[in-house]
Write a structure and sequence with these properties.
The protein contains 2 helices and 18 strands. By secondary structure, it is mostly beta strands. The two termini are about 35 Å apart. The N terminus is likely disordered.
Length: about 300
């Protein structure tokens, strides 16, 4: 595996704000969320294509509240198959500086790739919830967990000091998180990783992994470059028939100045099975499959 390096396809380093604005930024980023809703707060209309002969049965309120395991000790192991093009990741990391803050936004190749030799090969990612900390980097959410990648062949989390899930509502005693709970993935990075040496403390990256609304009714983002859309649930997802599976689509916009090979950004489709968590992820770069995650095993301490 190559050592971690920030091989950028697009990068923007922009100093902004005053010290007062910097102190307010982390609060503002959590409340200034773009939300384009296509449905009401009540039960949404059924998806197109359903008929009176095969009516769409929407999950009950109880079923909607028991989706993502969030108990310390829960673990997942994924097989990741690399596709015909190299997989990428997008991060928008904000670092505090002496005179404000700077954002390092980029699309980059996964650090564990070995060029075309990786195409068609299978790698492993193993994740485990290790704590329910009261402090999560610069945040202090009541309901949050810390995850550790116990194996990360491709470097999905390379360079990150800590990985957290922040969850709206509930408490750290909750075993599961519902689909109408917003879940944000947060990663912190040492100040030394800021490319121009201006950071005075660790940086933070944040994005939605669960939209916190009725499935199929809205899309959300922290920035216009990285949007998560909730799609319609199904009980017919392969290998999980009879279990509610909740899909999301993540779209990352292209950046001006990006390498032409990746000027169209990328798309990630994810599927979360009730009481299991993420069971599949498919990433496409410019329409070509770059990687597919498939859940191999999971363990919940108290199912």
């Amino acid at each position: 595996m190559r050592p971690f390096n920030r091989r950028l396809i697009g990068r923007f380093g922009r100093a902004r704000g005053s010290p007062m604005k910097r102190r307010l930024f982390l609060l503002v980023i959590l409340v200034s969320v773009t939300c384009a809703c296509s449905g009401s707060a009540g039960s949404p209309a059924p998806p197109s294509g359903s008929s009176s002969a095969t009516p769409f049965i929407y999950p009950s309120d109880e079923e909607l509240q028991n989706i993502l395991p969030a108990e310390v000790g829960t673990s997942w192991v994924y097989a990741i198959e690399v596709g015909s093009v190299d997989p990428v990741r997008y991060q928008d990391i904000t670092f505090p500086t002496a005179d404000g803050q700077v954002s390092d936004a980029n699309i980059e190749f996964l650090p564990g790739l070995a060029g075309s030799d990786s195409h068609g090969k299978v790698f492993t990612l193993a994740l485990r919830i290790v704590a329910a900390p009261s402090q999560q980097g610069p945040f202090a959410w009541r309901h949050a967990v810390e995850l550790t990648p116990t194996r990360d062949d491709l470097g999905i989390y390379a360079g990150a000091s800590h990985v957290f899930w922040l969850m709206s509502g509930g408490s750290s005693a909750d075993k599961y998180v519902g689909t109408r709970t917003e879940v944000s993935a947060v990663e912190t990075y040492p100040k030394e990783s800021e490319p121009n040496g201006r950071a005075v403390s660790e940086g933070v990256s944040i994005r939605f992994i669960q939209a916190g609304c009725y499935p199929g009714t809205c899309k959300k983002n922290y920035s216009a470059d990285d949007t998560l859309t909730s799609l319609w649930p199904t009980k017919e997802f392969p290998s999980y028939e009879g279990t509610w599976v909740y899909p999301y689509e993540r779209e990352v916009a292209p950046h001006l100045g990006s390498d032409p090979s990746f000027a169209c950004g990328f798309v990630e489709d994810t599927w979360y099975a009730a009481k299991i968590g993420l069971v599949r992820l498919e990433q496409r770069v410019c329409g070509s499959v770059s990687m597919i995650w498939t859940l191999q095993s999971y363990q919940v301490p108290n199912p």
